[in-house]
């Protein structure tokens, strides 16, 4: 168990993929963290061992060696695979719901909690103020009930 816990993370990038230029390799690794593995869908291509992820890592490195900027590489891959290839989708009309719905749900939940807390705060003082003196009719009825319960 200790050996498993002390083992470092297993990187999916193979030595034959690594670029000789450290600056280009750093850019490739940064881009690989932004791209989703289309097979695993939960991992970046930098973390995935799938063959498609390997192909995408190689493609990213080829595009960088050809002189593409980071934006050009991302644009090329989204044109080819769609916005789904991005782990963090861009804010566009097509992805607007992905960004707005969670914020709206949080805001709606906060408003509901605020309304419930406000309603409860209003009802507590009314219940505490309900201890008013009994009317003569209520007093007579209470006396009658007490006498019948003693018998």
Low-confidence stretches: 2-10
Helix content: 55-70%
The general outline is rod-shaped
- The helix/strand order is HHHHHH
- In the CATH hierarchy, what is the architecture of the largest domain at level 2? Orthogonal Bundle
CATH superfamily of the largest domain: Cytochrome C biogenesis protein
The name of the CATH topology of the largest domain is Helicase, Ruva Protein, domain 3
Whole-number mean pLDDT:
83
Write the layout of secondary structure elements.
Layout: H1 2-6, H2 22-34, H3 51-65, H4 70-81, H5 96-128, H6 136-150
Helix pairs in contact: 2-3
Provide structural commentary.
The chain is mainly α. It has 2 domains: 10-85, Cytochrome C biogenesis protein (Helicase, Ruva Protein, domain 3); 91-124. It has 6 helices and no strands. It has helices spanning 2-6, 22-34, 51-65, 70-81, 96-128, 136-150. Helix 2 (22-34) crosses helix 3 (51-65). The radius of gyration is 33 Å and the shape is rod-shaped.
Tell me briefly what this model is:
The protein is built from six helices and no strands. By secondary structure, the protein is mainly α.
């Amino acid at each position: 168990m200790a050996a498993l816990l002390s083992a470092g993370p297993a990187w999916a990038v193979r030595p034959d993929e690594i670029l000789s230029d450290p600056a280009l390799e750093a850019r490739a690794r940064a881009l690989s963290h932004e791209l989703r593995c289309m097979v695993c869908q939960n991992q970046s291509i930098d973390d995935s061992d799938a063959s498609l992820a390997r192909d995408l890592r190689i493609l990213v490195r080829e595009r960088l060696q050809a002189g593409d900027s980071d934006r050009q590489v991302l644009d090329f891959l989204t044109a080819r695979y769609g916005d789904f290839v991005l782990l963090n989708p861009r804010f566009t009309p097509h992805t607007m719901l992905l960004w707005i719905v969670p914020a709206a749900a949080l805001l709606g939940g906060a408003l509901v909690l605020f309304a419930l807390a406000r309603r409860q705060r209003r009802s507590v003082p009314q219940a505490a103020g309900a201890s008013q003196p009994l009317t003569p009719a209520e007093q007579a009825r209470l006396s009658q009930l007490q006498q019948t319960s003693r018998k």
